[in-house]
Design brief:
CATH superfamily: Metallo-dependent phosphatases
Largest sheet: 6 strands, mixed
Distance between the termini: 34 Å
CATH architecture: 4-Layer Sandwich
Number of helices: 6
Helix content: 10-25%
Strand content: 15-25%
Radius of gyration: 16 Å
Order of helices and strands: EHEHEHEEHEHEEEEEEH
Shape: globular
Number of strands: 12
Length: about 250
């Protein structure tokens, strides 16, 4: 199964329309089985921005779209609009893979929170699917991401959430938020953050990008795709061996 993982579109003042359209052309050519978008589809949670976000996301040709909210989406009472424009199931199953959405955004807050009830729900849900590949989808980061400055807005209950993820034997966690692609390995769990797909606010990694994830029965291989550029293995990314265009 081929998964495309994108994040932080930020429809609004900093949205880079031409970059997004170039990325969509690339993604549609890949013909992925699923597209995962990990939050911040809008800049300020405004109705006009949600209308644009819905339109541009619809231009991605994929039958299975797994979308979670980000802190920017919950601004200005945007959490009500998110439910209207991007209604989604908390659980999606494809082939031998199960996706579970964990909501970390809270109204008018930049920091993320999972909460005890959601951790318990996650463990109980995934315990019923022991033989499936388990993917958790969330916006905020559980572990600090390098090159993103003073980091004071992670998931506030990251320890409890990580313990739940370990107990549930999750294979892959997909997130965004920091506008910096990165991968952490925690035991057998890969935690992969997408950079920003189309925001002007690049940070730490000065190219727009998305992730391409190849899921097989016993393995997960992730690579970073620079919009209008080359693909990089995450070994290159985390070792700082990337040569970026125009930098």
């Amino acid at each position: 199964m081929l998964i495309v993982h994108a994040s932080d579109i930020h429809c609004g003042p900093e949205f880079q329309k031409a970059v997004f359209e170039a990325a969509v052309d690339e993604i549609n050519d890949l013909d992925p089985d699923a597209i995962v978008i990990t939050g911040d589809l809008t800049e300020n949670g405004l109705l006009s921005q949600y209308r644009v976000a819905r339109h541009v996301v619809d231009s991605i040709k994929c039958n299975t779209k797994v979308i979670c909210s980000g802190n920017h989406d919950y601004r200005s009472t945007g959490y009500l609009l998110f439910k209207k424009f991007f209604p989604s199931r908390r659980v999606a199953k494809m082939s031998n893979c199960i996706f579970t959405i964990v909501s970390t955004a809270r109204p008018e807050r930049n920091d993320g929170e999972v909460g005890h009830r959601q951790v318990v729900w996650l463990e109980r849900t995934l315990s019923k699917h022991r033989k499936m590949m388990k993917v958790v989808v969330m916006h905020h980061h559980l572990i600090q991401v390098p090159d993103t400055g003073p980091d004071n807005i992670p998931v506030v209950d990251a320890g409890d959430t990580l313990r739940g993820i370990m107990n549930a034997k999750v294979n892959l966690v997909l997130g965004g938020h920091r506008h910096r692609p990165w991968r952490w390995m925690v035991g057998d769990t890969q935690i992969i953050h997408a950079g920003t797909l189309s925001s002007e606010r690049l940070r730490g990694f000065y190219s727009h990008s998305y992730n391409i994830i190849d899921v097989k029965k016993d393995s997960i291989r992730a690579s970073l795709k620079i919009v209008r550029g080359k693909s990089l293995s995450y070994d290159e990314v985390v070792k700082g061996r990337t040569k970026l265009p125009g930098v």
